[in-house]
Specification:
Pfam families: Carb_kinase (PF01256), YjeF_N (PF03853). Homotetramer. It comes from Brachybacterium paraconglomeratum. Its cofactor is K(+); Mg(2+). This protein has two domains: about 1-220, YjeF N-terminal domain (Rossmann fold, 3-Layer(aba) Sandwich), CATH 3.40.50.10260; about 225-230 and about 240-505, UDP-N-acetylmuramoyl-L-alanine:D-glutamate ligase, CATH 3.40.1190. Helix content is about 40%, strand content about 15%. It is built from 18 helices and 19 strands. It has helices at about 5-20, 25-40, 55-75, 90-95, 110-115, 140-150, 195-200, 225-230, 240, 255-270, 280-290, 310-315, 330-340, 380-385, 395-405, 445-455, 460-480, 490-515, and strands spanning about 1-5, 50-55, 75-80, 100-105, 120-125, 155, 180, 185, 200-205, 220, 245-250, 270-275, 295, 315-320, 350-355, 370-375, 410-415, 420, 430. A twelve-stranded mixed sheet has the order 8-1-10-19-18-17-16-15-14-11-12-13, sandwiched between helices. Strand 2 (about 50-55), helix 3 and strand 3 form a beta-alpha-beta unit. The longest helix is centred in the last third of the chain and has 26 residues, at about 490-515. The radius of gyration is 26 Å and the shape is elongated.
Length: about 525
């Protein structure tokens, strides 16, 4: 699992090493230079590197890296000093290696364009862990010129003008092809804003691990975590042991939502999928997924429960909301079931998903548990926040945490970066596995089904939510050929087995290679 920390935690972890005289800057610079060489492998003969250097330690990292590129790799590396002061030790090292430092104040537009025209790589080391999401006016022309030049950017520690803790970024901040981060992944690199600018994140080990807090600020699942968490059937498995999920989904207006959510659950590996829907919707579901167990709802059935006690006791998770209007009786009953407000057997599920129409049934008195996952997009999250007297304009990480604290549920806030705020107050999760092609009708219904299947298999709410986001994103990438092709929601469900199999097969390949 990728574990990220806030700025203050990283500073505290660095302190004992710096006091002991550890040359952290030189080690960071050497790693930065190594990644620069890696990026220049396909560059033309005699590639050139241009460092944008601030006055602090981040600028020192960049200047020392430029010196190493000259001394050890015979590469042309020079710098633009972006502040009135400069990091003197780093500047002296670069000058001793034969490099040139150009004060930004001395460069007119033509000279700046000339320097960038000759560069094959820009190293952004203006600001690091102390950066804030505001760009001084005097630096705006520099950033604009770099962006317009199209020269690839390698960020030192994190892109400049990104908050290392929150991820909030200045609109003018430079997007990097890769970020070489030192000692620990910074939380801001995994959160909206910073994550979009960071590119690929490459962690350099500086020996901070034993000094970092045991609890990370932000976590992200990786493939190894999928292999550890994903339930897989054994020789003695039965459909009930694999998990039974019941979905109250689909209506006259949105019948397709039922097909999509049921397909998401089935293709993720649920042992049995029940669908609670009007008969016309069930007919549609059964034509697409004949293995589904149908439970009709509608006129003449509104007065009683759809599932009897025995069936309810053999159901392990529920999904409420996809394709349902807010006044549908299934919404009220589903929320009451998950909130423990119904007279049902003790074995009845208290874990499940509240999505779409079901989110509107949550009020300030609704208390849920962390194994219940709310799955709003930003607009739904803002509407829920207003009902719960939470500021709807909070940044996404804070909004997700606030909704989780107010309801007790785990909150999966959908977006380009999907955030998971555990209902038990655990570390925020951040998943960046998706493609923009997933921005199409019905993909959220598939996600709800995926999540329901994982909850039915027994995964804790936060793990199930993060894993569902990862699998859903990977399936979307497969279905769209890494974002090249448009997709429809059912393509995502149909790609889930391949997405899962690819991750598991990679583990088998690794095991064979280790023999």
């Amino acid at each position: 699992m990728l574990r990220a920390h806030g700025a203050e935690a990283v500073r505290e972890a660095e302190r004992p090493l710096l006091e002991a005289g550890e040359p952290l800057m030189l080690r960071a610079a050497a790693a930065l230079a190594e990644r620069a060489v890696h990026h220049l492998r396909s560059a033309p003969f005699a590639p050139q590197v241009l460092v944008l250097a601030g006055a602090g330690s981040n600028g020192g990292d960049g200047l020392h890296a430029a010196a190493i590129l000259r001394r050890e790799h015979s590469l042309a590396a020079d710098a633009i000093t972006a502040a009135p002061r400069r990091h003197e030790e780093g500047a002296a090292a670069l000058e001793a290696a034969g490099g040139t430092l150009h004060p930004l104040a001395s460069l007119d537009e033509e000279r700046l364009a000339h320097l960038l025209c000759g560069a094959d790589l820009v190293i952004d080391s203006i600001l690091g862990i102390g950066g804030r999401p505001e760009v001084p006016a005097e630096l705006l022309p520099l950033l604009e010129a770099v962006r317009d030049s199209g020269v690839p950017v390698l960020a030192a520690d994190l892109p400049s003008f990104v908050d290392a803790t929150t991820g909030q970024a200045a609109p003018e901040a430079l997007p990097a092809r890769e970020t070489v981060t030192f000692g620990a992944v910074k939380a801001g690199l995994l959160l909206p804003g910073g994550a979009e600018l960071a590119g690929t994140v490459h962690l350099v080990d500086l020996g901070l691990e034993e000094h970092l807090p045991a609890r990370a600020a932000v976590e992200r699942l990786e493939d190894a975590d999928v292999r550890a968490l994903l339930p897989r059937p054994g020789r003695d498995s039965t459909k009930y042991r694999r998990g039974v999920v019941a979905l109250a989904v689909g209506s006259e207006q949105y019948p397709g939502a039922a097909v999509l959510a049921v397909s998401g659950a089935a293709r993720t590996g649920a042992g049995m999928v029940r669908c609670l829907a009007p008969q016309a919707v069930l007919d549609l579901v059964l034509r697409a997924r004949p293995e589904t167990v149908g439970h009709p709802v509608g006129p003449g059935r509104a007065g009683g429960r759809v599932l009897d006690d025995e069936t309810l006791a053999r159901t392990h998770a529920v999904v409420i909301g996809p394709g349902l209007p807010g006044d549908d009786p299934r919404v009220r009953r589903g929320v009451a079931l998950l909130a423990g407000q119904m007279d049902v057997p003790a074995e009845a599920p208290r874990r499940g998903v509240l999505d779409a129409g079901a989110l509107g049934a949550i009020d300030p008195g609704t208390r849920l548990c962390p194994d219940v996952v709310l799955t709003p997009h930003r607009g739904e999250a803002e509407r829920l926040a207003r009902r719960l007297d939470i500021d709807p304009d909070l940044p996404a990480p804070e909004l997700a945490r606030a909704l989780a604290a107010a309801t007790g549920a785990t909150v999966l806030l959908k977006g380009a970066i999907t955030l998971v705020a555990p209902g038990d107050g655990g570390p925020l999760r951040s998943q960046d596995d998706a493609t923009p092609q997933l921005a199409t009708a019905g993909t959220g219904d598939v996600l709800a089904g995926v999540l329901g299947a994982l909850l039915a298999a027994g995964l804790p709410g936060p793990d199930a939510a993060a894993l569902a986001a990862l699998l859903h994103g990977r399936a979307g990438r497969l279905a769209s050929r890494d974002g090249l092709h448009p997709l429809v929601a059912l393509d995502v469900a149909d790609s889930l087995p391949e997405a899962i199999g690819t991750i598991l097969a990679d583990a088998q390949d690794l095991n064979r290679g280790a023999r």
